């Protein structure tokens, strides 16, 4: 009997882990019920409940447990079987045989190879009832979870959704916040309800879109090659960078009370829905790390707790990129003007007013803004210059 960890394994298509486990006989799943919940935990729990219903038909148990003891032999993606990929990472390497640290050469090389295609789909069969060696726990939902609307939580529904996706505007409009052209597939990819390979099998192959799927792959490859990506800057010189510690400003950022309408709208949407458009993730992350000069790791952690698509690798790489501390980053001295970004990508104000209905002028900082853009920008730059000078014997600093 093989027990499988539900993490990224609750689907029928492109699921070698489960298909292979079934070759050995009966299977069962264990799903860990968290004590402290993130938004993604709540979503995964909902997926697991639907999965349990589906598995009942085949007498396949899905047990809700408090933890998986280290010594127990539970199969999991990333352990017995690699996660499904589009390209073989060990093939996409530099001339010196090292993993790429920059996305563009990774992307160019990746495109030289045919993408991997879907592997075995699971053929479900009814099995004999099995004894359950786990003690089951009750699900104590956090109170806030009752009011959130979650994305689709059944694979069948996600596959139906894939058939409806239209990428004709994607390349030109993927940055637009109001007239959205993005796919919102990230929760399904993060939880493993669907794989990138299945998405391609549905004919979703528009180049700008595939490029984004490869960004995800690049993030995962980086986390595999450099597991410290979630803890310290890939651009190691930034380890000495003096971030500010300011709990009051950090809390105002989290709550969407910075006084910058585009930032506040995005942070409130995140809190209430677990979703934020990519452009807004960049604007809010830039605001935290440049205008407030607060450590990118604090923002990264907050996103991990609140995003419904929270993905360690993508989140960490993107935070490093925005903060300017990664190898392939937009440099620290490039500072977004949130008001200009708002005018460009959320011009009509509809989006901002949805989340900040009291704001009069949607493209102006409010009277109670926590910092003034010009001043904050100057401070960030002089701070950066000073740090650079203190490390001036170090030729690697940009
Ligand atoms: C600070 C910051 C934090 C982020 N944290 C996460 C995270 O925790 N989880 C996550 O899945 N994405 C993260 N992203 C990447 C990106 O914002 C989301 O993947 C995207 O907004 C999801 O919306 P979508 O599915 O409509 O994207 P689409 O534009 O439709 O893209 C299709 C898919 O490509 C992948 N993708 C797109 N952009 C990126 C990117 N920049 N990096 C990696 N993969 C990408 C996603 O899987 C996405 O579902 C983060 C970006 C930033 C700037």
CATH class of the largest domain: Mainly Alpha
Structural class: mainly alpha
Give the strand content: under 5%
Helix count from the secondary structure assignment: 16
CATH architecture of the largest domain: Orthogonal Bundle
Bound molecules: flavin-adenine dinucleotide
- Mean pLDDT over all positions: 95
Q: Quick one: biggest sheet?
A: 4 strands, parallel
User: CA-to-CA gap between the ends?
Assistant: 56 Å
Number of strands: 4
Protein name: FAD-binding domain-containing protein
InterPro entries: Crypto/Photolyase_FAD-like_sf, Crypto/Photolyase_N_sf, Cryptochr/Photolyase_FAD-bd, Cryptochrome/DNA_photolyase_1, DNA_photolyase_1_CS_C
GO biological process, one term: response to stress
Organism: Savagea serpentis
Task: Describe this structure as you would to a colleague.
The chain has 398 residues and is mainly alpha-helical. The chain has 3 domains: 1-83, Rossmann fold, CATH 3.40.50.620; 85-117 and 154-225, Serine Threonine Protein Phosphatase 5, Tetratricopeptide repeat, CATH 1.25.40; 229-390, DNA Cyclobutane Dipyrimidine Photolyase, subunit A, domain 3. Helices cover 42% and strands 4% of the residues. The protein contains 16 helices and 4 strands. Strands 3-2-1-4 form a 4-stranded parallel sheet. Strand 1, helix 1 and strand 2 form a beta-alpha-beta unit. The longest helix is centred in the middle third of the chain and has 19 residues, at 207-225. The protein starts with a strand and ends in an 8-residue tail after the last helix. The relative contact order is 0.11. Flavin-adenine dinucleotide is lined by residues 174, 182-186, 189-190, 212-213, 215-216, 219, 277-278, 281-282, 285, 303, 307, 309-311, 314-315, 318-319, 322.
């Amino acid at each position: 009997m093989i027990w499988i960890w539900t993490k990224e394994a609750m689907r029928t298509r492109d699921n070698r882990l489960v298909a292979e486990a079934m070759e050995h006989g009966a299977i069962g799943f264990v799903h860990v019920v968290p004590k402290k919940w993130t938004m993604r935990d709540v979503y995964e729990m909902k997926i697991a409940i639907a999965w349990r219903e589906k598995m009942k038909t085949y007498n396949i148990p899905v047990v809700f447990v408090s933890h998986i003891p280290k010594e127990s032999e539970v199969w999991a993606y990333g352990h017995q079987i690699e996660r499904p990929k589009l390209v073989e990472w060990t093939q996409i390497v530099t001339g010196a045989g090292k993993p790429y640290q920059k996305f563009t050469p990774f992307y160019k090389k990746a495109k030289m190879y045919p993408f991997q295609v879907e592997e075995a789909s699971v053929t479900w069969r009814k099995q004999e009832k099995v004894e359950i060696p786990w003690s089951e726990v009750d699900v104590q939902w956090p109170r806030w979870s009752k009011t959130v609307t979650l994305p689709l939580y059944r694979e069948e529904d996600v596959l139906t959704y894939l058939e409806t996706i239209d990428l004709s505007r994607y390349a030109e409009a993927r940055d637009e916040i109001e007239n959205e052209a993005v796919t919102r597939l990230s929760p399904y990819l993060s939880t493993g309800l669907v794989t990138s390979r299945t998405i391609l099998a549905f004919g979703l192959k528009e180049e700008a879109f595939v490029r984004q799927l490869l960004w995800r792959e690049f993030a995962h490859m980086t986390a595999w090659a450099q597991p410290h990506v979630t803890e310290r800057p890939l651009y190691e010189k930034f380890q000495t960078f003096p971030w500010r510690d300011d709990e009051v400003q950090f809390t105002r950022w989290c709550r969407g009370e910075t006084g910058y309408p585009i930032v506040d709208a995005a942070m409130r949407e995140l809190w209430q829905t677990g979703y934020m458009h990519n452009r807004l993730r960049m604007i809010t992350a830039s605001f935290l790390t440049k205008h407030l000069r607060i450590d990118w790791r604090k923002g990264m952690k907050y996103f991990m707790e609140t995003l419904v698509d929270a993905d360690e690798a993508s989140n960490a790489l993107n935070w490093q990129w925005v903060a300017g501390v990664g190898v392939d980053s937009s440099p620290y001295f490039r500072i977004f003007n949130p008001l200009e970004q708002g005018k460009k990508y959320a011009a009509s104000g509809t989006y901002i007013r949805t989340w900040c209905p009291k704001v009069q002028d949607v493209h102006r900082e409010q009277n109670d803004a926590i910092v003034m853009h010009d001043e904050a920008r100057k401070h960030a730059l002089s701070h950066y210059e000073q740090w650079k000078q203190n490390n001036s014997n170090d030729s690697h600093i940009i």
